[in-house]
């Protein structure tokens, strides 16, 4: 039979009300009594009924997070980091996966609302969506704050914490142009989604500074940002042409797909074609050729996102609702100078 407040009170010879106040660390109870109550609760294996507590207080002490796909290492790393930060702050984490589907994302939000989630962290899908107005309105109606993390939807009144992917991509492309590359392919997702469009802006800026034109044929869109998709578009690319000297992939997993496909076709990396990725995940180190990548400081980004969300949960106004964390380039063997025979 489950231990109750009455059992703890009986053991210690105090009232149930005092036990309840002590377990909630109320200032009305002295520290000595709080310690005795917590020790007795642990000894008797008392577990509070969080559902009942949530109904009574209309709070769940739980933060919800949505990620597009935990099979992508970057998102799995975010989930791990957020879980650590949320738990340190004394909250529980409820995680859900949208399968990169905006409609599922909306359904998850509605489920979170029904569970009295106190705040939501969302990694947006990599696809265009028409559902934003609907679930944004629902969250506002229930006074549940939302913070986007690692990306954003381009709508009004949003809060976000993300790496500066535009600047990071600019730095990667500048690294390649400084090595003499002029014909650089960019492989990303849908051009209308910020995670791709911001990177394209960084790509165009770096080329423009060198007076290099941006050719549409060098901007490749993928339906999904996975290894297989990158391998497929690379195979199609080298079937059409081989005049490019460098490829910038949207993430390290895609960069690995690019490298393996190039090598399978007898194209050496970086001797024939340089390749760069993004996020500095395990893929950048697993590759036979270490991948030059951009570290986006996942831990720092997650800490700032949780801090911002909890500020709003407490009724405070964040000093800065839009935060861009600075990326750092990690140079490895996959990028090198353009071949002397190339123009």
TrEMBL record:
GO molecular function: DNA-binding transcription factor activity; transcription cis-regulatory region binding
Pfam families xrefs: LacI, Peripla_BP_3
Gene3D superfamilies: 3.40.50.2300, lambda repressor-like DNA-binding domains
Keywords, sorted A to Z: DNA-binding, Transcription, Transcription regulation
Sequence ranges assigned to domain HTH lacI-type in this UniProt record: 3-57
InterPro entries named among the record's database cross-references: HTH_LacI, LacI/GalR-like_sensor, Lambda_DNA-bd_dom_sf, Peripla_BP_I
SUPFAM superfamilies noted in UniProt: lambda repressor-like DNA-binding domains, Periplasmic binding protein-like I
PANTHER family given in the database record: HTH-TYPE TRANSCRIPTIONAL REGULATOR GALS (PTHR30146:SF109), LACI-RELATED TRANSCRIPTIONAL REPRESSOR (PTHR30146)
Designated name of the protein: Sugar-binding domain protein
Species whose genome carries this gene: Christensenella minuta
């Amino acid at each position: 039979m489950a231990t109750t407040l009455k059992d703890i009170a009986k053991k210690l010879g105090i009232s149930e009300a005092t036990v309840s106040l002590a377990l909630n660390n109320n200032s009305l109870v002295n520290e000595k009594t709080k310690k005795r109550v917590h020790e007795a609760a642990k000894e008797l294996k008392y577990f509070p009924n969080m559902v009942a507590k949530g109904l009574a207080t209309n709070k769940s002490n739980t933060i919800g997070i949505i990620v597009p796909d935990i099979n992508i290492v970057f998102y799995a790393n975010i989930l791990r980091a957020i879980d650590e930060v949320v738990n340190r702050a004394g909250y529980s984490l409820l995680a859900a996966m949208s399968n990169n589907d905006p409609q599922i994302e909306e359904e998850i939000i509605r489920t979170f609302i029904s569970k009295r989630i106190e705040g939501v962290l969302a990694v947006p899908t990599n696809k265009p969506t028409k559902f934003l107005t609907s679930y944004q309105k629902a969250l506002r109606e229930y006074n549940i704050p939302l913070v986007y993390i690692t990306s954003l939807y381009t709508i009004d009144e949003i809060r976000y914490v993300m790496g500066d992917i535009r600047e990071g991509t600019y730095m990667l492309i500048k690294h390649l142009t400084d090595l003499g590359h002029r014909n650089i392919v960019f492989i990303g997702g849908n051009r209308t989604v910020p995670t791709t469009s911001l990177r394209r802006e960084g790509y165009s800026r770096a080329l423009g500074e060198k007076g290099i034109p941006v050719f549409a044929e060098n901007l490749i869109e993928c339906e999904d940002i996975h290894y297989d998709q990158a391998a497929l578009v690379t195979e199609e690319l080298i079937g059409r042409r081989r005049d490019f000297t460098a490829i910038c992939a949207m993430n390290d997993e895609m960069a690995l797909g690019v490298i393996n496909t190039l090598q399978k076709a007898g194209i050496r990396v970086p001797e024939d074609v340089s390749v760069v990725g993004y996020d500095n995940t395990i893929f950048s180190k697993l590759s036979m050729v270490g991948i030059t990548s951009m570290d986006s400081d996942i831990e720092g980004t997650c800490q700032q996102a949780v801090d911002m969300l909890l500020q709003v949960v407490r009724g405070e106004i964040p000093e800065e609702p839009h935060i861009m964390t600075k990326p750092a380039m990690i140079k490895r063997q996959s990028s090198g100078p353009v071949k002397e025979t190339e123009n």
